[in-house]
Amino acid sequence: MRSCFVFFLLLCPVFLFAQTKELSGVVMAAGSQLPVEGATISLLPEGKQAITDERGRFYFRQVGDDGQLLVTAIGHDPARVSLADFIKAGNRITLKARSVQLSQVTVLGGAGEQYKPISKLDIKMRGINNSQEILRMVPGLFIGQHAGGGKAEQIFLRGFDIDHGTDINIGVDGMPVNMVSHAHGQGYADLHFVIPELIDNVTFKKGTYYAEKGNFTTTGFVDFKTFNVLPNNSVKMEGGMFNTVRTVGMFNLLNEKTRAKGQSAYIASEYMYTKGYFDNPQDFNRVNVFGKYQGALNKHHQLSFSGSLFSSQWDASGQIPDRAVDSKLIGWYGAIDPHEGGKTSRVNANALLTTTLGHGAYLKNQVYYSRYQFELFSNFTFFKEDPINGDQIKQREQRDLFGYNGSYHKTFFAGNTQIVSEIGAHVRIDRTHGSELSRTKDRTMVTNPMMLGDIAENNLSGYLSETFRFNSLFSINAGLRYDYFHDQYTDKLHGGTKGKASADILSPKLSFYYHPSPFAQFYLSSGKGFHSNDTRVVVPQNGLTILPPAYGSDLGTVLKPANNLLVNAAIWYLWLDQEFVYVGDEGVVEPSGKSRRYGADLSVRYQPLSWLYADVDLNYSHGRAADAPKGENYLPLAPQVTSIGGITVKTKPGINVSLRYRYMGDRPANEDNSVVANGYFITDAFVGYNRKKYEIGLAIQNIFDVRWKETQFDTESRLYNEAAPVSEIHFTPGTPFFGKVSFTYNF
């Protein structure tokens, strides 16, 4: 009941002012006839502005019959039409595509829009050259691979070692990627089922301030959207060092005439193999198949349906100790346990129905299903626990994931105040079968079963987000979210005993936006977020303190001081409450304590010439455990200073050249900073030549062949002939000089 009253107060404007007269329209892209989201519409001569939503629609409080509409959007020619011509065209504006230029960008005045100009620019200018680039599209986000390429990457953002996704919410086409109560770790997010060439747009926002996002949204969220219509049919072939091959095929299934009527369908496939650069061959295989249909059922209903198949398997060299390399027991790319590795697969079905209701309202109903399998063999301590057979572990699960996302959106006016309302509900049901942790030898023999059981986790949530745009200068977003979790664990190692628990959490949000001109925005955001804990923690704790809240705040600005310069800067603060963590590698529960982080983010985009684009992201964070004594309160592996940037050249003859770097500073590897994880500076390059029918490319990672440690942990381990365990840095070596060539044929 505590949330109902607040929901009612926020909901009142939806019903009180639903019939106010307005000027509305839609912006579409020529050719594909797809809506253009994020276009800026200026009503002249009044100077009022609006931004198109995901359906390409915009709204104004009508003030007269005369005037003009000026429309600008990244990647499109600007358009200027009179109101009379606009109405004659059925309240529809069509934009022609053009090359992306920073000069096209205006600082958006909408609430929560501060990251959109950067995300749109980056994906159009930089592109995505490999699967690792997918997450690196988020400024300040770092990833690290430490298990042979097939395991989900370790993620770092805003002073967090996020592990594989505990504190960041990741989705693809509205479908969650994070896995709750996963065999390897809470929030495990494996994006390898996404074909990089299919990504049309990346939406990211940092912080805890968005009512539509729930579980895992502490540092922020990332949403990837695949193409509704392929730009063209294509076949791509890649080959590189270390016996690396990759093929991608993407094919529209309907002709241009049908696509022009708003119906599209395509299929894409990917195959990849690499032996890898480790002494122990990686033999990494990945297969992806993806299909999507997008079409108008009638004037008011739009349907999108997609399905995909993914399978991957690999061998891994794991994390190796410094002393084994220093003593020349193994080489830099060697392995202590050559039998690590794993396999995983995922089958997805995803359907979204969008219904336009009129009067500035629309409804979205989405259902999705995933069938997921995972098996991983790791060895972090070698012979510490079992001096005879070794400490190899197996983590395995089979999962069915069902979900529903529903939301009602309405834009209307109360007097001269524009109100954008969003009301939504989410249902997520996870069922795992045989979630296992066992000690094994050579992958084949189980030496000690540690945990085995079935997990049932249900998450029901509702939210409300209200944005009040009082005028072109000032707007407020207020949101409220409620989440309820019910968990059940069936312990198959102890007679099938069942334990149940439940918990809920209420998360308020409040943000202020000041937009003095098309070249500046200032914002202050605050909110409460959370991430759930593993069911194997929740049940023993009887549901208590297992939804640790996160309280955050951002003070920032988006500036465009010159036509070819865009700056996004923010200072931020984040507090995390006590939580209990299930350590999937050991099957134990550990309290983590309270933590406090603050920092600053700076992103700069500069285009001094039409063919030259430069970007740089600088990030600083300071994190400490709140309850520990000074000097013993460092947060292990939390990044402190990071930077990513590069230069991209795109000429009219079709030459594309980019040079990129990423820098991770030294960081503490343990609580008293007596062990340090060394930083690195890596440089990558890409050269391409594009014509209408084909593209040739050369990509080089680590062009200076730097020896670097991609992931590092302060771990206690014991080698076979050692008398006692030793605690020191264990690491996975990063990619050496690696070159690959590609050829793409378009038709």
* Main sheet makeup: 22 strands, antiparallel, barrel
β-strand amount: over 45%
CA(first)-CA(last) distance: 59 Å
**Low-pLDDT segments, ≥5 res:** 1-20
Fraction in helix: under 10%
Radius of gyration: 26 Å
Please tally the β strands and state the result.
Answer: 45
Q: Overall pLDDT, averaged?
A: 91
Provide the structure class. mainly beta
Q: Estimate the global geometry from the Cα principal axes.
A: globular
Number of helices: 6
Notable characteristics:
747 residues; mainly beta; 22-stranded antiparallel barrel; 4-stranded antiparallel beta sheet; globular; disordered N terminus
Structural features, described:
- By secondary structure, the protein is mainly beta.
- Helices cover 6% and strands 56% of the residues.
- The strands form nine sheets. It has a 22-stranded antiparallel beta barrel. The protein has a four-stranded antiparallel beta sheet with strand order 3-2-5-6.
- The longest helix is centred in the N-terminal third of the chain and has 15 residues, at 2-16.
- The protein starts with a helix and ends with a strand.
